[in-house]
Write a structure and sequence with these properties.
Layout: H1 4-37, E1 61-63, H2 76-99, H3 102-108, H4 111-118, E2 126-140, E3 146-162, E4 165-182, E5 185-204, E6 211-213, E7 229-232, H5 234-237, H6 244-254, E8 258-262, H7 275-290, E9 294-298, H8 311-325, E10 331-338, H9 345-361, E11 366-372, H10 379-382, E12 387-393, H11 397-409, E13 414-420, H12 435-448, E14 457-463, E15 472-474, H13 501-505, H14 508-537
Parallel strand pairs: 1-2, 7-8, 7-14, 8-9, 9-10, 10-11, 11-12, 12-13, 13-14, 14-15
Antiparallel strand pairs: 2-3, 3-4, 4-5, 5-6
Length: 545
């Protein structure tokens, strides 16, 4: 017989190694979990710096027909110089208010106007930025050294933080402006505000949800029945090598009634969407409509940055996309995947701004916001759109619970559901990545939906982006996966069946775990036998510890 202490030592050794390896696996897994659940919009700071040189300056100014038609006519190069100097002056005001930069104010203002700006509050709790200006020339001196114009539509955003409460005010204002040429530079001599057309206010404290007030009356678009849909990734349709017509035909063959066309993120270094992107978007919409598919355009993902420096970029991008899309689309999803769990005041204000902008540009098109259904829906922002859209991961019980709660809270608007399907690409995640597991997750969500929403759902992505697999219901090579049968649907969700043990064991994580457990067990047996052999070799009468 082996002494109890010897057996305990062997068992303890095996447990120590098992715990060490388990700890290694847990740390590896935690990296995946943290990456998955912390991706998206970052927590915003209380203060936002404003660039001294505005982003996309060439798109922020438009000139209306000149009111000044006497004597000297303004030259095109002078007009460009004025645009740049005027925008720099506005940026200088913002930079001065947010971090006290007086040099830029000295360079862009003159006389009493300079003094007026320097008398504005300047502290770390104040910021200001502009989103665009519409100018009309009212005077140009004969010697070309004095210019007067009206800024008929200055879209201005101001932010303040007082006692932990952040407030963002967006207004449309009018100004009378005089600029003079001094030392070879155009500077503002007079900046007189003459009117304010609208004021939208978004406020939030550290422990409260954002509140949006002052929103102008928005048109309500009639909503069509959403219909079964697939999501068409920009990584596919924006790729010049993609045959859009073939992909559209594939969607129709699978039984889809609608395409959700998502867009690439705005490029901060570009002056809007590229001509090629706009052309391929228009082609995607035209081919889809010709094939009988409704089209929803998804403007932004919730991962987009809401920093003030990017507001003009996003604004110009959205304008170009909405104008290129035209009225022959069913809906515009302003931002998809928005979670109220991390909805700060700046993001709420940006969504409100874009909701108003889209309503102005496309009043007849249904507007929606794609909410993360596992968190609550913000009622102020939802009131700005026509349709309630709820997004979540396939097979998630929290997703279904959120759908039930949100549809009960918002009973009036048309509602659609967007399922984020699982991937079939192999990874080190413990989640199975087989085609059956993907189909099972989608089926579980479809089977749990209220009957009224069973047809108003996007079941996943159209096609994989890689030969190694992905979230599409069709493989990279064009072969339908098991989940493709759920689009029309050709089979009932209950016929798919749950995830099997075989699906689970196909995951690399569990394969590695099996190898580790086997190795630990083998090492334990080996160690036990060594101890046993050593015990047998001990001389009679000796004692073991």
């Amino acid at each position: 017989m082996i002494k109890l202490t010897t057996a305990k030592l062997a068992i303890a050794s095996m447990l120590a190694v098992a715990l060490l390896i388990a700890g290694f696996l847990a740390i590896s897994l935690s990296g995946t979990i943290v990456s998955t659940f912390t991706s998206g919009a970052s927590t915003e700071d209380a203060l936002h710096d404003v660039d001294t040189v505005p982003t996309m300056a060439d798109t922020l100014v438009t000139w209306q027909r000149d009111e000044w038609t006497r004597e000297r006519e303004m030259e095109s190069p002078t007009r460009i110089l004025l645009e740049s100097a005027y925008l720099r002056a506005w940026a200088a005001m913002g930079a001065y208010q947010s971090h006290g930069d007086t040099d830029a104010v000295e360079d862009t203002f003159s006389g009493q106007a300079r003094e007026n700006v320097l008398n504005l509050p300047s502290d770390e709790a104040t910021a200001m930025w502009s989103l665009g200006h519409q100018l009309r020339l009212t005077f140009y001196s004969r010697d070309g050294s004095i210019v007067a114009f009206d800024d008929e539509r200055a879209r201005v955003v101001r932010e303040t933080v007082v006692d932990g409460t952040s407030t963002i005010l967006e207004s449309v204002e009018t100004y009378s402006v005089v600029m003079v040429l001094e030392d070879g530079y155009w500077r503002i001599k007079q900046l007189l505000r003459t009117g304010e057309d609208s004021l939208m206010i978004t406020t939030a404290s550290a422990d409260e949800d954002p509140v949006v007030t002052g929103v102008p009356a928005l048109p309500s678009a009639s909503t069509e029945s959403p219909g079964r849909a697939l999501t068409y990734s920009y990584a596919l349709w924006a790729d010049p090598t993609t045959d859009i017509a073939s992909d559209v035909a594939e969607a129709v063959a699978l039984g889809a009634e609608r395409l959700r066309v998502d867009l690439p993120p705005p490029d901060p270094t570009a002056s809007g969407a590229s001509d090629e992107t706009l052309e391929r978007l228009q082609r995607t919409i035209a081919l889809s409509r010709a094939a009988g598919l409704a089209v929803d355009v998804v403007l932004l993902s919730a991962t987009v940055s809401d920093e003030p420096a990017l507001w003009p970029v996003i604004d110009a991008f959205v304008r170009e996309i909405v104008e290129a899309s035209g009225d022959d689309i069913r809906a515009i999803d302003i931002m998809s995947g928005v979670s109220t769990a991390d909805l700060g005041v700046t993001r709420a204000a940006l969504i409100a701004h874009l909701s108003v902008l889209v309503a102005e540009l496309a009043p007849a098109v249904t507007r929606t916001i794609g909410w993360d259904a596992t968190a609550s829906v913000d009622s102020d922002l939802q009131a700005l759109v026509d349709e309630l859209t709820l997004t979540g991961d396939a097979g998630s019980p929290a997703f279904l619970d959120g759908i039930t709660a949100s549809t009960q809270a918002f009973a009036d608007p048309s509602t659609s559901v967007v399922i984020r399907s699982g991937t079939t690409a192999a990874s080190w995640s413990p989640k199975p990545s087989t085609e059956h597991a993907q189909a099972s997750g989608i089926a579980a969500t479809l089977g749990g939906l209220p009957h009224a929403l069973s047809d108003a759902v996007s079941v996943g992505d159209l096609r994989d982006l890689s030969p190694d697999g992905g979230t599409g219901v069709v493989s990279y090579g064009g072969s339908p996966k098991e989940a493709a049968a759920l689009v029309e649907p050709q089979i009932a969700p209950s016929d798919v069946g749950p995830v099997s043990v075989r699906d689970v064991l196909s995951a690399r994580f569990w394969q590695l775990a099996g190898v580790v457990v086997t190795a630990v067990a083998a090492w334990g047996v080996f160690r036990f036998r060594v101890l046993l052999k050593a015990r047998r070799r001990r001389p009679e009468g000796s004692t073991g510890r």
